[in-house]
Every structure is written in C-alpha cells, then in structure tokens.
From TrEMBL:
Family membership: Belongs to the Gfo/Idh/MocA family.
Chain segments annotated as transmembrane: none
UniProt protein name: Putative dehydrogenase
Domain Gfo/Idh/MocA-like oxidoreductase N-terminal, residue spans: 8-113
Record has Heme as a keyword: no
Classification via InterPro entries: Gfo/Idh/MocA-like_OxRdtase_N, Gfo/Idh/MocA_domain, GFO_IDH_MocA-like_dom, NAD(P)-bd_dom_sf
GO MF entry, a single one: oxidoreductase activity
Lineage of the species this protein comes from: Bacteria, Pseudomonadati, Pseudomonadota, Alphaproteobacteria, Hyphomicrobiales
Assigned keywords, A-Z: Oxidoreductase
Originating organism: Oharaeibacter diazotrophicus
GFO/IDH/MocA-like oxidoreductase domain residues: 133-249
Length: 339
C-alpha cells in the first residue's frame, strides 16, 4: 500500500452529492487524495473546505484548474455545464471524473471528443464498480439465470422544489436525464449488449416542464428487453429484477447502496411462488464512490486500461435522446450508433 501515489483531486463545486457522498467515499481509498475544492462563492468554498477538512479552497473553478498540484477534478455541477467544465479542466491538463449525464444531448456530449489526448475522462456511474453489480454480471455470464430475457427497473424520488436543478429543464432536469440513465447503464452492463430500439411514454409537470414520469421499453435484440419507470414525484423506491429462462436476480438497493454497508441480492429459481424459494446472497461492505474513485485513479496511473470514456458517454446520451424522441413522436425509434 505504501507504494501507491494517490491522485491529487479537486472538487468542482460544493454540490450536495459531493459533500455527502463522493468526498466521504473517496476518502476510503488510498488511491485518491481530496486536495482542493472550488466554488464560485469563495466563502462557501472556504466553509465547505473547513467543514470537510480539505486543505485548499478556491473562489472560482478557473483557479482550481490553474493549480499545478491538482492532477484531476470531479465535476458534480448541473448537467448543462458538464461539457464546458470538462473541456476547460482537460485543456488545463486535468483528468476528469464527471457526473452523469455527460451532457444535455448526444451532440453536446460529442463535443467531449475535443478533450486532449492523454487526458482521462470518465462518466461517474458508480454502479459499475459496486460488488453487487459485478456479482450480478458474473452470475448472468455464468448462466445462473439461464438465457437473460428481461431487466425490470423502478427508480423514483419525491421532489417538488421549483428551485432544485432537477426540476429545471434549462439545467437538464427531469427523471430521464437524472435517473433514467441508471436502468440503461446497468442493462448494458449485465447483458453485455447495446440496445437497438426504444418505445416510451412521458408525463410532464405542467409547471416545471420536466418529465416527472418516464416509462420505456428498450429492445436489446435476441429476445432481451429492458422495461423501466423513473419518477421525480413518487414515493421513493428502487428495485431491479434481472430475469432469465431459468432464474431471476433481484437487486434490493440497486443504485443508492448504503456506503460502507453490506448489500443483498436475491436469487429465485421460480420453483415456488411467493418468493418461497429465494436464496439470499450478501455482499460484503463496500463504498461504490470510493471504488469509482479508485478505478479512475488506477487508469490515470496506468495500472488499469480505460474502459468507460467519451465514446461510451456519447452512446449513453444517444440512447437517452432516442427515448425522449420515442415518447414525443409516439413510435418506436431506432437507436443509431454514434459516428
């Protein structure tokens, strides 16, 4: 462990997810040192740095990008700023871990192709590092559920604050961009496949203009479907079922897995109804944000190859954009592969 040279990372903004989730998670790995934080409000940056024990605070993002001791940044700002801030940081020589979604649409995300060579850019889908999702993918690959045929997802929260960015379309708010990306990313992950077409329906809040309920059917080909509902004005709930010809895997807390706690997957062979034949699989305690930061740092240090970069993010935005279009036009929409 003493041979590890941690990546010195700066946090771009004092966003709640950074304060409450990501910074505590990053401190669980020796691969990352949270060395600075920036805000457009210098007093807020200083107060957050003091509260979290971060050595350096900056009153602008540009000052953070100009710090020669900072190797990488984490960007948890509103969705409409992700591409511009990623490009600014990358052009200043910083590697970038950027919150999802990569941008406002596929064309916006495609601008990330201008990131200079040698800069690591990764979209922050922490679920791809969580042991429970690695276990689900391993079991699917091993044939534990037979031939996979369906993924079913519900993910919701209840938010009515008009000032929250998740309720502001100009910032990329709404259920689809905020949490609709999760059913898609885990389905791509466990099925080892890309979707072909999508049908969808959207219910919009009359005041906010954002989608408060999005439902979609996504065809992955070879008899494999993803169905999901995501909502921003619903009882909070999340659950994923991965169903095959010989069994079913259920992820109990698929996306907001408690940090530093064990997680549970349930396997059902379907022999008895009412979950009577359920096998409970307990995964050891872990922190998906720490594991995400560790994976990012290992790519920077050349220990592991880059798996999820700009091209993957553009694919994600293409699928999300096709989903919105399918709902708007009321028809199946083919999902084009980005050029």
């Amino acid at each position: 462990m003493s041979s590890i040279e941690p990546v010195r990372l700066g946090v771009v903004s004092t966003a709640k997810i950074a304060r409450d989730k990501v910074i505590p998670g990053l401190r669980t790995t020796p691969w990352v040192e949270v060395a600075a934080i920036a805000s457009r409000d210098a007093d807020r940056a200083a107060a957050t740095a003091a509260a979290l024990g971060i050595p350096t605070a900056y009153g602008s993002y540009e000052a953070l990008f100009a710090d020669p001791t900072i190797e990488a940044v984490y960007i948890p700002t509103p969705n409409d700023s992700h591409v511009d801030l990623s490009l600014a940081a990358a052009r200043a020589g910083k590697h970038v871990l950027c919150e999802k979604p990569a941008g406002m649409n596929a064309a916006d995300a495609a601008r990330l192709r201008a990131i200079p060579e040698g800069i690591v850019w990764t979209e922050a889908f922490m679920v791809r590092q969580h042991p429970q999702w690695l276990a689900v993918r391993d079991m699917v690959r091993a044939g534990r559920i037979g031939r996979p045929i369906g993924v079913q997802v519900w993910f919701s929260y209840d938010l009515h604050d008009p000032d929250n960015i998740r309720n502001r379309p100009e910032n990329g708010g709404g259920a689809l961009l905020d949490i609709g990306c999760y059913p898609i990313v885990v389905s791509r992950f466990v099925l080892d496949a890309e979707p072909l077409r999508v049908a969808a329906a959207i219910d919009r809040d009359a005041t906010f203009g954002t989608d408060r309920l999005t439902s979609a059917l996504i065809d992955f080909g070879a008899g494999r479907h993803l169905t999901f509902q995501v909502a921003t004005q619903s009882v909070p709930h999340q659950r994923v079922d991965v169903v095959g010809t010989a069994g079913r895997l259920q992820v109990m807390i698929p996306f907001n897995a408690p940090q530093g706690e064990a997680t549970v997957i349930r396997f059902d062979d379907g022999v008895a109804l009412g979950d009577a034949g359920i096998e409970t699989i307990i995964l050891p305690p872990s922190d998906q944000y720490g594991l995400e930061g560790e994976a990012f740092a290992k790519v920077i240090r050349g220990v592991e190859p880059a798996v999820y970069g700009v091209d993957d993010a553009i694919v994600m935005m293409t699928i999300l954009e096709a989903t919105e279009r399918a709902a708007r036009e009321g028809r199946w929409v083919e999902i084009d592969r980005p050029v």
